[in-house]
Amino acid sequence: MANAKRIERGQRNFHAGQAAEEQVARRYERDGHRILSRRWRGPLGEIDLIAEKDGETVFVEVKSAADFSTAAQSLTRRQIDRLLRSAEHYIGALPTGSLTPMRFDVALVDRSGRMEILPNALMT
């Protein structure tokens, strides 16, 4: 029974994460970005969203939780490192490579669906 509850909780969290990513993607589109990829997966990990606007590539990590503080605290050093390595792999395949203008945003979504986007949160 405990295993069934754990599976149910995992599925609920997965679907909530997908809904948060969709909400964030729509926000970026409303702000004039073009979504290049959702859940892009490379050999080094996954990037939730990759967007572009005015020649700048934006890598977005989406975190959802009961509140913004909890969502922000759930972003670990390991996840940040994975995001940076994955982005490096992604841009390596672009014509401009490491000269590509880019930034790393973190999008926080709380349980009620409110969103806070932290532009250039990783200050790279």
TrEMBL record:
Region of interest called Disordered, as start-end residue ranges on this chain: 1-23
SUPFAM superfamilies for this protein: Restriction endonuclease-like (SSF52980)
Record's compositionally biased regions (Basic and acidic residues): 1-11
Alphabetized InterPro entries for the sequence: Restrct_endonuc-II-like, tRNA_endonuc-like_dom_sf, UPF0102_YraN-like
Domain of life: Bacteria
Cross-referenced Pfam families: UPF0102
UniProt-listed HAMAP family: UPF0102
Family membership noted in the UniProt record: Belongs to the UPF0102 family.
Identification of the protein by name: UPF0102 protein GCM10023209_01280
Species the sequence originates in: [Roseibacterium] beibuensis
